[in-house]
Amino acid sequence: MVNMESWDWDTQEKTVSDTNGWKDKFEWVEEFQASPDGEKVAAIVKTGEAEFSVCVNGEAWENTFDKCWYLRYGPDGRLSCIVSSEMEWTVAVDGQAWDQSFGYVMEVKFSEDGKNVCAFIQQDGMYGAAINGEPWENLYSNMTNFAISSDGQHTAGSVQTEPMDEGDIFKFQSGIFTAAVDGKAWDKTFVNVWNKAFSPDGKRLAAEARMTLYDYTIVVDGVPWSEIYSCVWEPIFNPKTGAVVAPVKVGASWTLAQDGKTMWNRSFVQCWQQIFSPDASRVAAVVAPKYGKWTVAIDGEAWHSIFDDMVSDMVFSPDGRRLAAVGKNDYDYSVIVDDTVWNGTYDMLWQPVFSPDSQNVAIRAEKQGRQTIVMNGKPWKQECEQVWDPVFSPDGSKVLIRSIEGGRYIRRVLPTTELTG
Amino acid sequence: MAEGQVIDGIYFNEVWEDAGLDEGTKKLTPEKIEKVINKVLEGETGARLKVYVDTCVHCGLCSDACHYYLSHDKDPTYAPVAKVKQTMWEMIKKKGRVSPTFMKRASQIASTQCNVCMRCAMYCPFGIDIAYIMSVVRRICHFLGITPLYIQDTAHSHAVTMNQMWVKNDEWPDTLQWQEEDAQEEIPTLRIPLEKEGADIMYSVIGPEPKFLAQLLYQAAVIFETAGLNWTMPATPGWDNSDMAMYTCDNEIMGRVKRVHFETARRLRVKKIVMGECGHAFRSIYDRGNRWLAWKMHPVYVEHAIEFYYNLLKSGKIKIAKKYEESVTLHDPCNVMRGRGLYEMARYVVNEMCADFREMEPNREHNYCCCAGGGVINCGPPFKMTRMLGNRVKAEQIAATGAKVCISPCHNCHSGLEDIVSHYKLGVHVKFISDILYEVMEKPGAV
């Protein structure tokens, strides 16, 4: 995990960079990205005719590229960008492009500690993945649903293993797709393989699959569950036991199944986005107990607070006792924590963040074009052009707030009590 | 054209070869048919189908609503009620004990002789939704593996790529980037912002745009740029709002595609989705796909291009430099006109853009279908003549306006009308709204 202890938790406020000047310096400044520790702000900039680079705290990388896109900070604070030079694509990390380049790079994902940067690549019309620039030995004629293990040492995709002529529905239905892990395809093929999840140790892989046009199941390391369903959604691993849990449709209803056996004694009109608590003692999912009515269910028990449009962004507290999520009615987003909806609605909400002691919940929020942080239902007094997700200090006593105000990128460390009141 | 023919005691008003239907039918057994029909009827239809079947008094008032019926000189086999008689009524009456040949005809009728346009529901004294009944027939045919080949292949594409045209994961962002580069020659500051989290709008399109109609992406980018909007497009699957699985009634794939679309919008934290000029895609994210997933409405607000252009023109964010002078008429796509009621907005937009607008008759919610929608054009070349012969009334309707241009704010309608125009030698150009808007709008940023 990222060592947040070493971050500056003492400086109360500093302007890291006045981005107003960037527009004088560069012809083109794209959207800003803030580093996890708040010490840097970056954007893709146009440095010349058909020449792009990345500006960090006002200084552009030395290297320039023909194209740049998908600029993102990894958890360890290194800055990655998909870049192109002379019709070849690769990933540049802190300004240094990988040695290997490819026909295209479509997606970049980071390991939890940020040390491994993984990319979904295409080379000569073949598809696969690369870790820190090293591509799979075997590439495939088609690949979708790129996934990585939490340590970023393993990558996977849904791959096509046999050629198929255009419009050959019979070949397709014979099953020519499977999952490939680190470039090696499972032996067994399926009609479709979709979303995948690695076990926490990265050694196992579970995936949604369609065995025929009508029969769905979960496949773990190439072996399908014995149970067949009319539909399934993405599986996850129990972080303690290694069991695989997925939403499954039985009859007209959805419920959770574990290793092919029904896990909950209740079913719902819809059930998805399940997550385990950190200690794996509880499992929660977004559910529709009635048609068009959405809430959270924990261990099969639905909350009473209901939203008409959707519920999303569930997160358990570190101690596993609390859960926060975002709900929406019409155009209004609300925060819901432990089945209690906060006062106040917003035009947009991001994912809630718990403090390390599980006592406080903070969230990035937007209303009428201005963004702020809301803690335990109370908005911070400052309204900004942009804020990023709040970050609690390891002891939970302080909150790092990264914001842009009047074009200035500001890093603040506030006592948690200042936001809780 | 293939004439009507009796095969195994079943009358086919048209006979075409289609590998999906022909090969699929060979694998059918009476037992399998009975089992599937009863499974769908008992497990998936419920009161809605029962009420429709019990309520119909066989009056035939739906007949004159159907462009197939009218175009075939009132051949009764093309009447909506006759389509039900030749499919669902028999299945119910015989408790699923119908023959493979009967099911082949049922699939042909439901998939290629009904555009599920819902015009007939307006003319039924009881409002019976025959499009729904035809969809149930298609659902049964899906489970029996007797869906026409081309549209089945498209459903497979959706299942693998989450888009309609087998567009691979790199091809989509790559296409947007070269469109952006091309457009910068005209407007140097123009961007097609990819993966811009927190933008106000996610713009979504259908699979054919990156595949064959990349100029529409260019035009949309010019409109967004000129209007000064905070927008983005996803670089991942979820960018395609279309859904032919909706029309093969592979509801599970339909739902999967729609879930990815809305979850992509949520991931990007946009406040609304603006979608291009497509009708069936609108139906899939506004009505069918979202509702199969248990969303009563769209979980992220969806604005069709017609409403989007209307708002841009009404607010002055887009201004017209010089009106289009060629005479134009407007085709009202079923899914966004009858389905969503955007006809007055469409007329506002057309009148703002064009100097000489001529109405088709009938129009608005009473307009005739293009005969391409409902997945019929996606059944491919084997059934092209079904569409041509089944929509003579549309050709007559367009010709009567005397217009030189037919505006069609829907992809399937657009393609279908081009075929109609060509087949009946109408000498009319078919255009999207954006084709004309791009041409006549002010572009202050252009060099």
Q: How would you describe this protein?
A:
The complex is a heterodimer of chains A (421) and B (447). In chain A, a hairpin with a 6-residue loop joins strand 3 (33-34) and strand 4 (41-48). In chain A, the strands form 10 sheets. In chain A, strands 1, 40, 41, 42 and 43 form a 5-stranded antiparallel sheet that branches. In chain A, strands 2, 3, 4, 5 and 6 form a 5-stranded antiparallel sheet that branches. In chain A, strands 35, 36, 37, 38 and 39 form a 5-stranded antiparallel sheet that branches. Chain A has 421 residues and is mainly β. Chain A has 3 helices and 43 strands. The longest helix of chain A is centred in the middle third of the chain and has 6 residues, at 169-174. In chain B, helix 17 links the parallel strand 7 and strand 8 (357-358). At the A-B interface, strand 7, strand 11, strand 15 and helix 2 of A face helix 1, helix 9, helix 10 and helix 14 of B.
In short:
The complex is a heterodimer of chains A (421) and B (447). Among the domains of chain A are: 16-101; 110-224, TolB, C-terminal domain (Neuraminidase, 6 Propeller), CATH 2.120.10.30. In chain A, 4% of the residues lie in helices and 50% in strands.
Which properties best describe this structure?
heterodimer, A: 421 residues, mainly beta, Neuraminidase, five-stranded antiparallel β-sheet, B: 447 residues, alpha/beta, Rossmann fold, four-stranded parallel β-sheet, 51% helix
CATH superfamily of the domain at 110-224 in chain A: TolB, C-terminal domain
Structural class label of chain A: mainly beta
Residues in helices of chain A, as a percent range: under 10%
Strand content bin of chain B:
5-15%
- Structural class based on helices, strands and sheet pairing of chain B: alpha/beta
The CATH topology of the domain at 110-224 in chain A is given as Neuraminidase
Q: Which outline of chain A best applies?
A: globular
C-alpha-based Rg of chain A, rounded: 23 Å
Mean pLDDT of chain B: 97
Separate helix tally of chain B:
21
Overall pLDDT confidence of chain A: 97
Main pleated sheet of chain A: 5 strands, antiparallel
β-strand amount of chain A: over 45%
Number of helical elements of chain A: 3
Q: Based on DSSP secondary structure assignment, what is the total number of beta strands of chain B?
A: 10
Rg over alpha carbons of chain B = 22 Å
Uncertain segments of chain B of ≥5 residues (pLDDT<50)? none
Total beta strands of chain A: 43
Which assembly state applies to the chains in this document? heterodimer
CATH architecture of the domain at 110-224 in chain A: 6 Propeller
How far the N terminus sits from the C terminus of chain B, by CA atoms, comes to 53 Å
